Amino acid sequence: MDYELSHLKMLEAEAIHIIREVAAEFERPCLLFSGGKDSCVMLHVAMKAFWPAKPPFPIMHVDTGHNFDEVIAFRDQTVDRLGVRLIVASVQESIDAGRVVEETGPRASRNRLQTVTLLDAIEEHGFDAVFGGARRDEEKARAKERVYSFRDEFGQWDPKNQRPELWSLYNGRHRKGEHIRVFPLSNWTELDIWQYIETEQVLLPHIYYAHEREVFRRDGMLLALTPFIELLDDEELFTTTVRFRTIGDATCTGAVESSASTIEQVIAETAATRITERGATRADDRISEAGMEDRKREGYF
Amino acid sequence: MELLRFATAGSVDDGKSTLIGRLLYDSKGIFEDQLESIERTSRDRGDEYTNLALLTDGLRAEREQGITIDVAYRYFATPKRKFIIADTPGHIQYTRNMVTGCSTADLALVLVDARNGIVEQSRRHAFIASLLRVPHLVVCVNKMDLVDWDQATFEAIKEEFRGWATKLDITDLTFIPISALQGDNVVHRSANMGWYEGPPLLHHLEEVFIASDRNLIDARFPVQYVIRPMSGDHHDYRGYAGTMAGGVLKPGDEVVVLPSGFSSTIEAIDTADGPVDEAFAPMAVTVRLADEIDISRGDMISRPHNRPQSGQDIEAMVCWMSEQTQLTPRAKYTIKHTTRSARAMVQGMHYRLDVNTLHRDHDVPALGLNEIGRVTLRTTAPLFFDDYRRNRDTGSFILIDETTNTTVAAGMILGASQ
Ligand SMILES: Nc1nc2c(ncn2[C@@H]2O[C@H](COP(=O)(O)OP(=O)(O)OP(=O)(O)O)[C@@H](O)[C@H]2O)c(=O)[nH]1
Ligand SMILES: [Mg+2]
Q1: What DSSP designation does B79 have?
Q2: What's the gap in Å between B22 CA and the centre of ligand 2?
Q3: What average pLDDT score do residues B251-270 get?
Q4: Are the beta carbons of B72 and A144 separated by less than 8 Å?
Q5: Band of the pLDDT at A103, cuts 50, 70, 90?
Q6: Which residue has the higher pLDDT, B383 or A155?
């Protein structure tokens, strides 16, 4: 016995430790679940953390209303299969209630509006800890964020004034109305996620694997044809084989051309890729150099 | 694959972020879109060359000021190892963020600007790394391009550092002359410094032996969470979930639970993947015991003949991290240690350390931001601890200010107070 853990086991152990810590110290945690690969892995780890009991918190989907049907079906199957409680926070309801105003024009997206819906839901349910599946390798502002990320009563992140975070001693103290965002997968990379999906046989929505889809080219990305998006004059639809590397709002999440239809093939592709998943697929990150930092300051995921 | 966590350290502008950028760039650890983005930014700012420090200096304020403010975490892998990098700030004001980055590191890279030699901040950081017991220290003498690749400059810095480091507790110390900007001795061997016979930095990072850094002797299991399923299938299940903090536990082992002192035997060690034959750090497991005894979060499971120390009076080195307040005698805080929280009062302040000379200043009334000193703490409940030298998990704690809720100190236990 050499008492060595594989890097995946180490990452899993760290995530389990964080999730249990939150369950022990907070009154009302909840886990954000979008059906994306990171949240599927996070939920899988949370199920393992409390086995044979269920996680002692609900999961929440911030629903932009601009979904891929497969993902919503997958979300509902997952909830049934695992027997966890789902809360849906709806951006459409925020729009109907006049909390936010829908963007207009062909490039309209509900991505930014989600923040208001998320913060309203956190307040409504009184959540004091919110698990997110964000990883530090995704983006340069995320690379700076603590595992326990303190949010003030407006849900804001203050990157210049983060609490020191030492060893595995996490400080979750906060006043009423403030909360902590918790990122158990902070230290995982995209490749770690896929390798874990393979070893653990984590189920994902099928759109993560290669399939035929009607798409068009915009801003160097392949966007899927959905009822929520209007084509510009010079844009043309065509059918090709694609898969998604991330799943977000259907109007701003790009697909990549790929024939990788199995986990093994996706891993091979991920190991060889020269472009980050956000660079390849997220229009929302292209707004400006500090797009993510600004959105996070406002309370985004 | 083995995982190595390392952190950068050293004074402002000594080239820490540039080195990490270089390491990622030359080992193909960065992606095309990341490179394009920093090329664009460098161009827009009128820099003469692509500023690789932008790979880790991701915050708006950092880019504006050209300095690192908070730790950036970066990830890369070679066929030999996976690496988690914490690129920390050199600016004295942000020392606490450097401490954050080093607390979990297996290895620290201390950068020294070859032109300036060892400055106060290099000493402070090397000292903090040794205090935090980062097991391996690599001194990178950087900007060798600006001193004409001069061997004598390198040797002089090496000698000076070695001389000073004898006062510290550093077990493994290595020196490498580099140019982070040009890539010499980072991933590839330098053609400009034929006189240097050691390996380039990446080679060292791939080969440094870390397996023996762990404590496999003292079994420590701080109970984190009690699992009681309350469902038909597992009605009588009661397991103690937690993360191994040292040593090895096996089913059949006789154990003692603190603070109650009750003994029992391990019936099984569960995970969602099935029971395991052995648990060791840092595995996250669930322990079941043969006897029904009252156990809750904050209790400590260990072996009867190898128990942690226990007590309410502890001696510790603390690193103060608050700008707003100072650590003063009789002040009260919340202390977090393993899975236990209690209140703690500063019983005595013995001295403050001068990080330059390591001189002990006995007549100080308080510790201010980024100062390090030795204190005695009295806690409202007993803690179960080991000396930090022996176990980083059971020897460390944080202090939290009860009015602002911020983390104000990092503590390393020296032992029980007599
Ligand atoms: N000539 C030369 N310049 C270098 C070298 N390494 C870094 N620099 C320059 O030194 C300056 C500071 O580099 P950084 O990497 O930002 O320094 P740092 O140590 O990360 O600074 P802080 O994080 O703010 O403490 C930049 O202008 C770099 O281009 C080197 O090897 N040679
Ligand atoms: Mg820097």
Answers
A1: S
A2: 12
A3: 97
A4: yes
A5: confident
A6: B383
In SS3 terms, B112-162 reads as EECCCCCCHHHHHHHHHHHHCCCCEEEEEEECHHHHCCCHHHHHHHHHHHH
- Nearest-CA residue for atom 14 of ligand 1: B15
User: Within an 8 Å CB–CB cutoff, is residue A202 touching chain B?
Assistant: no
One-letter-per-residue 3-state SS of B319-388: EECCCCCCECCCCEEEEEECCEEEEEEEEEEEEEECCCCCCEECCCCCECCCCEEEEEEEEEEEEEECCC
Atom of ligand 1 nearest to the CA of B146: 1
**Could you tell me the pLDDT band of residue A285, with boundaries at 50, 70 and 90?**
low
Determine whether the interchain pair B100/A5 forms a contact, defined as Cβ–Cβ distance below 8 Å. Answer: no
Measured in angstroms, the CA of A93 and the nearest CA of chain B are apart by 33
Ligand 2 center to B59 CA (angstroms) = 12
Reported as a single tens digit per residue, the pLDDT across A14-31 is 999 999 999 999 999 999
Tell me: ipTM over 0.90: yes
Which pLDDT belongs to residue A250? 78
pTM: 0.94
Q: What is the pLDDT of residue A286?
A: 53
User: Which residue of A lies nearest to B62 if distances are taken between CA atoms?
Assistant: A160
A224 lies within 8 A of chain B by CB: no
- Residue B338, classified by CB atoms within 10 Å of its CB into exposed (0-12), middle (13-18) or buried (19+), is buried
Closest-approach residue (CA) in chain A for B323:
A161
